[in-house]
User: Fold this.
Amino acid sequence: MDRLIAAVGPCRLEIDAGGTTFAALTRSIVYQQLHGRAAATIHGRICVAAGGRAGRAPSAAAIARLSDEVLRGAGLSQSKLLALRDLAARALDGRLPSMAQLQRMDDEAIIASLVAVRGIGRWSAQMLMMFRLGRPDILPIDDFGVRKGFGVMKRARAMPTRDQLARHGERWAPWRTVASWYLWRACELPAPPARSR
Assistant:
């Protein structure tokens, strides 16, 4: 890790502590498995359809009022539409914790509360914890970029397993979020020379 830090430079991890849990998870659902531009377009259409403007997060009530046809017309798949409906219902009936409530919870309690939402998995919960809540000790072992970066750092011939990353990552506690940021950056570095035999 020392060589990687030297190659990349100071950590520039940015935390966006603004917004609501609903807004953050709405964005997460819309952006899942899509290229950034396509996801931004769909998210913008949903924001506008909900009575706002592109980039401004809609409320749960505004989303709940939209018809399925409008949401599909904005570009949502059926599975994302159902996930967004579940998210809005949970926000409206109080089952979705606020950002302030999440701040008071431990990491595993946050994950448990968020993965109860349809379409939100452990990875999405961890991204919220890292980039919205600023949790310092998150290592998303299911993230392809983090695993690939770990392989680059270790000059591994094969993609490291989740277990290998988790075991090795224990040494980075309590700063595994920062380690994750560096592992993502490792994927952007020029390839190191091949190992000699």
In short: The mean pLDDT is 94. Residues 78-93 form the longest helix (16 residues). Residues 2-12+140-186 form a domain with the Endonuclease Iii, domain 2 fold (CATH 1.10.1670.40).
